Amino acid sequence: MRKGLLVASLVLAGAALAADAAPEATVNGLVTYLLGKKTDIVKDKPAQEKFLSAALRGKLADTDAVITKSANCPDAGPDTDLNNGTLLQAWDPPEACPVASPADPAQPATQIDVMCRWGKGSQYPGTTRRMRYFMVREKDRWVVDDIRSMASEYNQESSVTDDLAALRKEAEATLATCKKKP
Predict the structure, then answer these.
(1) 0.70 exceeded by the pTM?
(2) Whole-angstrom distance, CA of residue 122 vs CA of residue 118
(3) Do residues 83 and 58 lie in contact, with contact meaning Cβ atoms separated by under 8 Å?
(4) Can you give the CATH number for the domain in which 135 is found?
(5) For residue 8, what pLDDT band results from cuts at 50, 70 and 90?
């Protein structure tokens, strides 16, 4: 009898852990955070820990450090600020990004598609764009390792890691020719 109760308890505990660690929950949590009015994923280390892989956090931090250094250069571009829009891959945020295809949590890495849509009050009313979240498991939980924005009417296909690399390269080029602001 005890064995049966123990097995049932372990099965129930495992199911509860699996439900808590669902990759869709991580994506929904991150999207909700990114669409929040007073949130900043670039500066919010606890949010980064919660939602982003160590590799993506490192790329974000490295890029932010180079951009911050280049901000004192007179020829620093206005488009070099990192913010929530960097991960949303949109300067004008969508109104919602519901999950369009669920993940396979049995795999060590998986992907989830969301369909972002822009409402009437945006620069792109009625527009939709598919975003693919690449998920990995770290410390027994799902985190986002990259985000790929699919091509749409107003956006070319790109990924967050590619965008961060391009922004870093631009900031490094600015630093290489920089004469500090007086």
Answers:
(1) yes
(2) 6
(3) no
(4) 3.10.450.50
(5) very low
